[in-house]
Amino acid sequence: MYAVFKRELFSLLNSLMAYITIGIFLLALGLLLWFFPETSILEYGYAELTGFFSLAPFLFMFLIPALTMRSFAEERREGTYILLATRPLTDWQIILAKYAACLILVLFALIPTLIYYHTISQLGLPLGNVDGGAVTGSYIGLLLLGAAFTAIGIFASAVTKNQVIAFAIAVFTCFIAYQGFDAMSRIFAFQFLETVLLSLSINEHYQSISRGVLDTRDLVYFISFAALFLGFTKLVIGGRKW
Predict the structure, then answer these.
(1) pTM here?
(2) Residues 54, 177, 172: CA angle, nearest 5 degrees
(3) Are 135 and 50 in contact (CB under 8 A)?
(4) Alpha-carbon distance 163 to 176, whole Å?
(5) How far apart are alpha carbons 68 and 90 in whole angstroms?
(6) Coil, strand or helix: which one is 226?
(7) Within 13 Å of residue 187, how many CA atoms lie on the same side as its CB?
(8) Closest CA to 147 of 92, 221, 201
(9) DSSP count for the chain of H helices, then E strands
(10) Of 31, 63, 70, 155, most Cβ neighbours within 10 A?
C-alpha cells in the first residue's frame, strides 16, 4: 500500500497540472481576500479570517476535483490500472493509497494560507488580537471538508475514464453535498424535514466546527461521509472487476 501511495503522491507532485491548480487556488483566494472590495479583509475592518473560511469551501469545489480527477480515470484510460489490480493488493489498499496521496496534496495547498493568520495578527489592534481557537477550529473544519470532497473526487474518478467528466461529476456532487441540503431545508414542502436535512448538510457541520468547538458528532459525520463515498468507490471498482 505504501508503494502505491508513494507512486501516486510523486505522480501528483511531478504533474504540472497539480501546481497550476494549486497556484490558481491560492491566487484566487489572495485576490478575493485582499483586493476585491466586496470580500476584502482590509475593507471588513476586523482582525478575523471569517472571509477566508467562507470562501475556501467554494474554491475547494474546483481545486479538489481537479486534483482527484486523474486518480482512476487516467489509469483506466491508459490501461495501467490492470497492472495495479493484478498486484497482491486489495481494492481498499489501492483506494486508500490514492485517497491519502490526494489528501496530502490538499494539505500542501492549505499550508501557504497560514501567512494570512500571521498577517491578520500583525494588523490587529492590539498586536496579535486574533481568536486563535476559532482559527484552529476553522482549519480543522477545512481539513475535514477537504477529506470529504476528496472522497467524492476519488469516487467520481472511478466512475468514468474521462477526466473532464470526472471533474464535472465531482464539482456537482460537492456543491450538492455542501449547499443542496441547506437549500432543500428552506423549501416549504420540506420544512417538516428541516432538522434531518440540516444534519445531512456538510455546511452545517463545517460551520459548527468553525466556531472553535470540536463536537464528536461533527467528527463522526465527516468520517462517515468520507467512508461512504470510499465505499461507493469500492463497489464501482469491485463491480468492474466482475
Answers:
(1) 0.89
(2) 95
(3) no
(4) 20
(5) 20
(6) helix
(7) 9
(8) 221
(9) 14, 0
(10) 155
Cell of 88: 497482491
CA gap 139, 67 in Å, rounded: 20
Map grid coordinates 481498499 to a residue: 92
Q: Which helix (H) or strand (E) holds 16?
A: helix 16-34
233/177 Cα distance (integer angstroms): 17
> pLDDT per position in the chain (242 positions), as tens?
767 777 777 878 888 888 899 999 999 988 888 888 777 777 766 667 788 888 899 999 999 999 998 888 777 776 666 666 666 678 888 889 889 999 999 999 999 988 888 888 777 666 666 777 778 888 999 999 999 999 999 999 989 888 899 999 999 999 998 988 777 777 755 666 767 777 788 888 888 888 777 778 889 999 999 999 999 999 988 755 54
In a 13 Å sphere around the CA of 107, the CA atoms on its Cβ side amount to 10
Q: Which residue has the cell 420540506?
A: 190
Is 187 in contact with 197 (CB distance < 8 Å)?
A: no
Cβ contact 184:196 at 8 Å: no
Report the alpha-carbon distance of residue 167 to residue 98 in Å, rounded: 16
